[in-house]
TrEMBL record:
Residues 1-26 form the signal peptide. This is Solute-binding protein family 5 domain-containing protein. Belongs to the bacterial solute-binding protein 5 family. One of its GO terms (cellular component) is periplasmic space. Pfam families: SBP_bac_5. SUPFAM superfamilies: Periplasmic binding protein-like II. GO terms for molecular function: peptide transmembrane transporter activity. The keyword Signal applies. InterPro entries: Peptide/Ni-bd (IPR030678), SBP_5 (IPR039424), SBP_5_dom (IPR000914). One of its GO terms (biological process) is peptide transport. The keyword Transport applies. Keywords: Signal, Transport. Residues 96-431 form the Solute-binding protein family domain.
Amino acid sequence: MKNSRHSQMRWLALVPLAGLVLTACSGGGDTYGDGDGDGAADGGDSTAPAASSSQLVIAQSSDILTMDPHMHRNRPTQNVIHTVFESLVNQDTDLKPVPELATEWEQVDDLTWRFHLREGVTFHNGEAFDAEDVKFSIERILDPEQASPRASMLAVIDSVEVEDEHTVLITTTDPAPTLLSGLAVNEIVPSEYTAEVGDEEFAAAPVGTGPFTFDSWSPNEAVNLSANEDYWDGAPGVGTLIFRPIPEVSSRMAALQSGDVQIAAEIPPDLTGELGGGTEAVSVPGTRVFFLAMNVTKAPFDQKDVRVAANQAVDKQTLVDALYEGRARVLNQPAFPEMIGYSDDVQGIDFDAEAAAQVLGSTTETVQIDSTEATRTLAEAVAGQLQAAGLNAEVNVLEDQAFTDQVESGASTAYLSSWGVAEGDADVIMARHFWSPSREDAFYTGYTNDELDVLISDARSTVDQAEREDLYAQAMQIVMDDVPWVPLLNPEEIYGVSTQVQGWEPSPIGRFNVADVTLGSR
């Protein structure tokens, strides 16, 4: 399916895009697992069958990076993994903590939390879930030799103690206001099995406690899962769950309307009107922050005035109106208003094409903006606006893993990406992207600031929410003064959904909670 002529004309009027260099990387790979699941390809055939009444197919814009829940920092990967694995706590649609593998918890003192674990839960290989698995999982994430990208989420944890088979004590180094939100996005793995088979085999044959069991993964083709008939909360309503990576929007929508897919993620707002014939658009306010990141150690972005000018060159409201049909919010800081840590006092940098041109017009460097296929359109639009202000900007579209490697190693001059803030707390962005200790495992922009480090550290160890808000207000102002980012926008999460799908509600954090979904006639 192609964009409507109206959408194309608005796009052509948006920015001058001539001369952009686009390179796309994709390809097949080995198959992991038994390879017998529906939709797994043989001989490079990437076409999954149309769904049966017991088969639910979900299309995302990109493939997963791994099936090891502790070795990624990627939302599409998390979406798949959390159907196979579970955490101590989960989050409801208001981002509040709710029980999952822990039924209840209490704070014993400022540094100690007690978690009571769900009894009668087994992993998919029959191994009983208990407190040793919780201890093992958290310590695995925090082990420096494991080099987990998720370690910073739980860095405040000092120790994990098994009190009894179904009770765990977690002690933190400082008061930890974000502990529950961090635990909600870090899943539990079976201690005996993981230690026995090792990391590589565990990722190839993962075992969790979730509503679906892993069958196979054919990279760039499909992840195939089956219903866990012994799931502690009852067997799922569908027998098979398939995740298919379909980077191109038109292809995702075509697969949805043909019946090959029942849920398609990341539908552009201007295309929702083209859904029909047994499909519809379903949306929910999102928690994703889109941004242009600039490497402050590389020319021309090693100059603050160039970074300020890049912020002035981007007309965010035009991006929202033309690309999102108003179904997104302009950001003036690395946070959206509902996030803990958002500051009304931070003004950001307004669009000023003339001021931007005075600086960017004198730059001589050609700037490559790295992107994935999922963010290509937005990257092209931003690059076009930078070009209009005089910066020679090119878009380089990379396969997902190559993109991650590029930005985390510091090889990017600039990149356009998004960061999901499922926890609803600014710590998720501030500590990961602007805190010096995090540069040890992810370079990103290379930006550090001693004063900012202190503010972030204090905010991470303060339980008084009013005090945390004040600390983050100061931190946000420093970030927007030094501007290693151009904060862009916060869009709604929009899905294309078949009318076959019953019992599903979209999640603001993009997660697919489909254990209770059933499929009716189309």
